[in-house]
Specification:
The complex is a heterodimer of chains A (219) and B (228).
Chain A (H helix, E strand, L loop, with lengths): L1 H7 L11 H33 L3 H13 L2 H9 L9 H24 L3 H9 L4 H34 L9 H9 L3 H35 L1
Chain B lengths: L4 H4 L6 H6 L1 H35 L4 H13 L2 H7 L1 H4 L3 H25 L3 H9 L4 H32 L10 H8 L5 H29 L1 H7 L5
Classes of the chains: A mainly alpha (219), B mainly alpha (228).
């Protein structure tokens, strides 16, 4: 542990092509891009399926499939295919694939768990399908959808770490480089950085969730 | 001359590879299954008492659930790496990491299963003179079994997938084959190991589903049409 601390407090390890700064930037870049793309694809589809009440088997089973497929295997498959020459593309595609299941499932489940009597009341007041969706279903489904965004974010950060095992960028590279050098201090230092990033992302999203909930209940 | 060519041309699917390396594939699969079975069993042995503790002493609920959720947030590669100074390059490292992940799922599902036992069933058993241990073994645990088994299935499937990351310390079962194949872009080996991994997960899930049906015959009687 003291070795890891010494490694982390060495200024030279923070700068340069393979420094902590560069690796952190790569990690945040691929994670952010993947989360945005996955949300843009999965949230509208999940919300729409939930609104219609169709495709439930698909929306729920996609999560079970997601759990059964190893992240490392998918990344490795991309890296032995021509995709390996496309820069960050293989990582981002893998990240998107693993972020979609929690987003899709939670968006669908959140919509389905909206109190049916609230929807019927809204219909009875003469709201159109679109109005029911925007003013009733979406606000009530919000917390469950946010839970999905949180698990997707945690999944994305973890997957971006495994990307280092196939030679892609990100904070995981500090860990794999440490293994290659038989440098336990560096391995632990890298692991601490990755764990802190994951916990920070989770904490920020919990904070955002609280803020949104507070605004909803007060306004 | 034509058969060994798929190894030379580096095809995705290669019968020659499967034939010549079947021993290596079997060995990796067995290591994979071994690590998964030990991890899930240990996780059950830790999670069920933890869940019972949380239920008996609700003030432990916050710390236990908070800690397991915290552990679940730590990425697998980081988790294995943090355990490196403690265990060195060993299977114990991978197993410990996998147990810590499975705990989150199992503690939550055990608690959810026990919470789902109807209060009147509990009262009826107490009224019949059941002590707290007999109540637990003969009434509560059997009734909690479907939800608990759902948790075990989920934990097993994700453990099988996560085991591959153990290849970072050379104990990743089929993950080792994937890692070995990467430097030479050996497609047949990456694909075969990946497919075997998913097949393992599906097989384990179906076996556990079968076990659950055997253990809880009453859930089928109740849903059988015409049955009383």
């Amino acid at each position: 542990m003291t070795g890891a601390w010494a490694w982390l407090t060495t200024g030279a390890h923070w700068t340069g092509e393979e420094g902590i700064g560069q690796r952190l930037a790569e990690h945040v870049y691929v994670s952010g891009a993947a989360l945005l793309i996955a949300s843009a694809l999965a949230l509208p589809l999940g919300l729409w399926l939930g609104h219609l009440g169709r495709g439930g088997a698909l929306a729920v089973n996609v999560s079970n499939v997601g759990r059964a497929v190893p992240v490392f295997a998918v990344l490795a498959l991309f890296m032995v295919s021509p995709l390996r020459n496309a820069g960050y593309v293989p990582t981002v595609v893998a990240l998107v694939l693993f972020a979609i299941p929690p987003l899709l499932t939670n968006a669908y489940v959140g919509m389905r768990e909206v109190d049916r009597s609230a929807v019927r009341a809204a219909r009875g007041m003469g709201m159109t399908g679109g109005q029911v969706f925007r003013r009733v279903e979406l606000p009530l489904a919000g917390p469950v959808v946010m839970t999905g965004v949180r698990s997707a974010a945690v999944q994305v950060v973890a997957t971006a770490t495994v990307a280092a095992m196939v030679g892609q960028g990100g904070l995981g590279r500090i860990i794999t480089a440490g293994f290659a050098l038989y440098d336990t201090a560096q391995v632990v230092a890298g692991a601490v950085l990755v764990a802190l990033l994951a916990l920070l992302v989770e904490a920020v999203l919990v904070g955002v969730d609280r803020l949104l909930t507070a605004r909803r209940t007060s306004g | 001359m034509s058969t060994p060519n798929c190894l030379v041309t580096n095809d995705w699917i290669c019968g020659e590879y499967l034939r010549t390396r079947s021993e290596e594939l079997t060995e990796a699969t067995l290591q994979h299954v071994g690590i998964t079975v030990v991890s899930v069993l240990l996780a059950i042995l830790v999670a069920v008492p933890l869940a019972l503790l949380v239920r008996a002493r609700p003030r432990f609920a916050g710390p236990v659930l908070g800690l397991t959720t915290l552990l679940y947030t730590v990425p697998s590669l980081a988790m294995f790496s943090l355990l490196l100074p403690v265990f060195g390059l060993s299977a114990a490292l991978v197993v410990t990491g996998l147990v810590l992940y499975a705990l989150t799922i199992l503690v939550r599902n055990t608690l959810a299963g026990l919470d789902a036992v109807p209060a009147e069933t509990r009262e009826a058993a107490r009224g019949m003179g059941y002590g707290s241990w007999r109540l637990l073994w003969q009434v509560e645990l059997p009734l909690a079994l479907p939800v608990l088994m759902a948790g075990i299935r989920m934990a097993t499937v994700s453990t099988i997938a996560l085991t591959t990351v153990g290849s970072v310390v050379g104990r990743g079962g089929l993950g080792n084959l994937i890692e070995d194949a990467l430097p030479t872009f050996f497609k047949a080996q990456v694909l075969a190991a990946s497919v075997l991994c998913v097949l393992l997960a599906v097989t384990a899930d179906l076996l556990l589903l079968g076990l659950q049906r055997l253990l809880t015959p009453w859930t089928r009687i109740r849903t059988a049409p015409g049955g009383v």
